[in-house]
Design brief:
With 195 residues, the protein is an alpha+beta fold. The protein is 33% helix and 32% strand. An 8-stranded mixed β-sheet has the order 1-2-3-4-5-6-8-7, with helices on both faces. A hairpin with a 3-residue loop joins β1 and β2. The protein starts with 7 loop residues before the first strand and ends with a helix.
Length: 195
């Protein structure tokens, strides 16, 4: 079953359900190889982005995930992508993942607001009880970002994923539960209102 989600809009970002016609803009957003250091696939050429988008759209149509492009409202440009994946509505849980951004929006409010919009939709609209995150154990920047959101680290799955270059990674799991959402929501709201 395909999960239907509309546009999610905040002050700085707009999350738009992914369409194949976003491929060119997504490829233009890739401004550094550093973006892909810890992600499972490579992005060396335009065809890699075509594959990336096709897989996401196919998975959405099969009900496995909901992919979004992230639009920076200050420039009206697509600056990255994120997904709700591992969608298990019968268990009322999802994973937020496959998030990547152009380096020009790193260390801005873009990621925090995008996650706030996704988490709000998950808990307040879909009534989920668990949202999880997975991060390559080497990716300190992303691990700190997930903790800053208010997620709790659950554990490390050792040697559980082989990347495109053959590296066997350890994956750190984090989650936010429905019982924690009110406090997390208030903290994120405070973080986003600080200018």
């Amino acid at each position: 079953m395909k999960v239907e989600v509309g546009v999610l809009e905040g002050e700085r970002v707009r999350l738009v359900p992914l369409q194949r016609e976003h491929t060119d803009s997504l490829y233009r957003a890739v401004d550094s190889d550093e973006i892909w250091t810890y992600l499972p696939s490579r992005m060396d050429k335009f065809e890699d982005m075509v594959t990336h988008v096709e897989e996401a759209v196919d998975n959405w149509e099969q009900g496995y995930e909901v992919p979004f492009v992230v639009v920076d409202k200050t420039t009206n440009e697509i600056v990255g992508m994120t997904r709700l994946e591992e969608v298990f509505l019968e268990n009322r849980s999802v994973e937020v993942g496959w998030t990547w951004y152009s380096t020009k929006v790193w260390r801005t409010r873009v990621n925090t607001e995008a996650k706030f919009l996704l988490l709000s939709h998950c808990f307040d609209v879909l009534g989920l009880i668990r949202v999880q995150f997975r991060v390559d154990s080497r990716n300190v920047r992303s691990r700190e970002a997930v903790l800053r959101l208010g997620a709790k680290q659950e554990g490390i799955f050792r040697k559980n994923y082989i990347l495109y270059d053959g590296y066997i990674r350890d994956t750190v799991f984090f989650s936010i539960l429905d019982s924690e959402w009110s406090g997390v929501k208030n903290s994120l709201h405070d973080l986003l209102t600080v200018r």
